[in-house]
Amino acid sequence: MPRGGPGSAGRSGRIETDALAVDVRGAGHHRPRVELVGRYRSIDCATNLLTSYGRMRDGSQVLIRPEQPGDIEAIRAVTAAAFRGAAHSAPPVEPGGDPGEATLVSWLRDDPSWIPELSLVATEDDAVIGHIVCTRAHVDDQSIDDRSKYDRGALGLGPLSVSPQRQGTGIGSALVQAVLAAADARGESLVALLGEPAYYGRFGFVPARDVGIVAPDVSWGDYFQVRTLSRYDGRTGQFRYATPFDKF
Predict the structure, then answer these.
(1) Best label site of 3, 42, 57, 167, fewest CB within 10 Å?
(2) How far apart are CA 23 and CA 185, in angstroms?
(3) Cα–Cα distance between 193 and 135 in angstroms, integer?
(4) pLDDT score, position 61
(5) Least confident range of 136-145, 165-174, 194-203
(6) Do the beta carbons of residue 198 and residue 9 sit within 8 Å?
């Protein structure tokens, strides 16, 4: 199964030290705080749709906003470019085709697990240069009697993609922080991913087993990580990604 990292961008430098702590609105009286990378001028989570505008490490100005219908082809191209040749990319669905992550995004978009406001793009001069998505997942906690709580709260993060020529400038970090902010504003409980601990640890991700979440594949070890959010309810148990992930 593909990991959540942005191709080789998982080895990009540190988070900007001048990141701002921003109040995220849009979840009633619940207003989580989350640090966002870069000098963000505005955050708008009205109706749980996040749009942010910031300056990256190389001085470029990037807009992060929800995916729009016209972005779909560009998202596929960015995802394919980011994972092409990456050490842990998924195999193409068709021989000689795009890396599996590009097809996975399309499968997820057509799946009930898709959450439109958690599919975010990074754009520069109206061109898509990065993408991140969180989809509905489940933690099989048998102690939860309220089915509505079971069906809401757990998310799987990935794929995360940044155009190869823009990796290492903070765009991947900005996308991760943005989607975590949007997930928190929605009242989600936790986000899980498969990725490099050295990269994702800076965003508060920890080995999933440390909080009692069991990986779909125990061989993943500490690469399977969880970030609990403000409304984490203490659930533990087996984690299940959205069905399209099972095709790899």
Answers:
(1) 42
(2) 10
(3) 11
(4) 79
(5) 136-145
(6) no
